[in-house]
Design a protein that fits this description.
The chain is of the alpha+beta class and 360 residues long. Among the domains are: 4-101, Alpha-Beta Plaits, CATH 3.30.70; 253-354. The protein is built from ten helices and 19 strands. The strands form three sheets. Strands 1, 2, 3, 4, 5, 6, 7, 8, 9, 10 and 11 form an eleven-stranded antiparallel beta sheet that branches. Strands 15-16-17-18-14-19 form a six-stranded antiparallel beta sheet. The protein is globular and about 65 Å long.
């Protein structure tokens, strides 16, 4: 079996079929046995690199090379046809609680690489289930190929009536490096990459950079999670010299401010918490005084969270130990179905969503 240094031989970048990379978020403490459970033990082959495995897909469809160097975000590289590869992965994501796509916010695509030239952009906004019948844009689909293709979407977003409907769904760019050569990278919102070019190493570096920025978003969400820690025992009690209890409380709710109003709050919540993809949230909605409160369950990891929704805002309360990918999925899909111009109210969290100040 090949080690990482020989991957380029098995994953050609210059063929007529583009190389594909899919990134999945995985929750496991036993990666090797998890991969065998995911793909079938007899379909997994080890390599000289302990973080790299080859997974054969039954039916002569081909294989994935699975890179587990990042223990949470695994890369599935393949030259299989996109439909076959995507279907195999999607079946596993949809049937497991410990596996999910990554969900890139719109600005993570818009600012995917500051020095790259965009060649193709696509926006897909499907708002018919969430926006009112009188809104100027219920659905918006635009695809443009050309130099600096993103500028058309920027112009549409500058119009007040349409800025809430311009959500980047995919982008294709040219990345040039004097040492590693040229790449043509096409990136989709759910973390799939299709590439042709000169260097697999260059492509792997590019994917890692995108994933690292996304991981900062997820980790910042988890850092803000609500924590309640009793103080009535152990060292803290001994230092005080008494037996009185107490607790420390930290964390903040994740605030979202919408640029448009929800026309029918009850209907909006019924659509959001119906357990269906892509939101994968379920809960009973309680309406009180023009506000909805939901004790919801995220079907990705089975965790509980509370969500409050007003006519132009939302608050998400996640507990310590919860998965930040829940909020990333919520934000990305609200951008593509309700309001692409939404703003996260916590300054540090807003920065890692918009990438303002984080990349040139």
């Amino acid at each position: 079996m090949s080690a990482r240094a020989s991957l380029a031989r098995y994953l050609p970048m210059d063929s007529s079929v583009p190389l594909k990379t899919f990134v999945l978020e995985v929750h496991t403490d036993e990666p090797e046995s998890y991969l065998e459970d995911l793909a079938g033990r007899h379909n997994v082959e080890l390599t000289a690199d302990v973080f790299l495995s080859r997974v054969a897909v039954p039916g002569d469809h081909g294989a994935f090379w699975v890179d587990r160097l990042n223990p949470r975000f695994w890369m599935f590289h393949t030259v299989m046809p996109a439909l076959a590869a995507g279907a195999w992965l999607n079946e596993r994501v949809e049937t497991r609680r410990d596996l999910d796509w990554i969900w890139l916010p719109s600005d993570h695509l818009r600012r995917i690489s500051p020095d790259a030239l965009s060649r193709k952009v696509r926006t897909i906004f499907v708002g018919e289930r969430f926006v009112g019948p009188d809104d100027a844009a219920q659905d918006l689909k635009v695809q443009l190929t050309g130099r600096h293709a993103e500028r058309l979407l920027d112009q549409i977003a500058a119009l007040d009536s349409y800025r809430s409907a311009v959500s980047f769904d995919s982008i294709e760019i040219l990345v040039d490096d004097p040492d590693l050569g040229m790449l043509r990278e096409a990136v989709k919102r759910h973390g799939s990459f299709a590439v042709s070019g000169d260097s697999f190493v260059h492509h792997a570096q590019f994917v890692r950079a995108v994933v690292d920025r996304y991981a900062r978003f997820v980790e910042e969400v988890e850092r803000l999670a609500l924590r309640f820690e009793p103080l009535g025992s152990g060292r803290s009690q001994a230092v005080r010299g008494d037996d009185e209890g107490g607790a420390s409380y930290s964390g903040v709710p994740i605030g979202i401010c919408f640029s448009r109003r929800i026309s029918d709050l009850r209907h909006f919540c019924a659509e959001l918490f119906n357990s269906r993809t892509p939101f994968r949230l379920w809960g009973q909605v309680i309406m009180v005084g023009g506000m909805a409160t939901v004790d919801a369950v995220d079907l990705h990891v089975g965790q509980r969270l509370r969500i409050e929704v007003g006519t132009d805002w939302m608050r998400v309360y996640i507990r310590a130990g919860s998965c930040g990918n829940t909020v990333a999925r919520l934000v990305s899909n609200l951008q593509s179905r309700f309001d692409s111009a939404l703003v996260l109210t916590h300054e540090g969290l807003a920065d890692v969503v918009t990438l303002e100040g984080l990349i040139a």
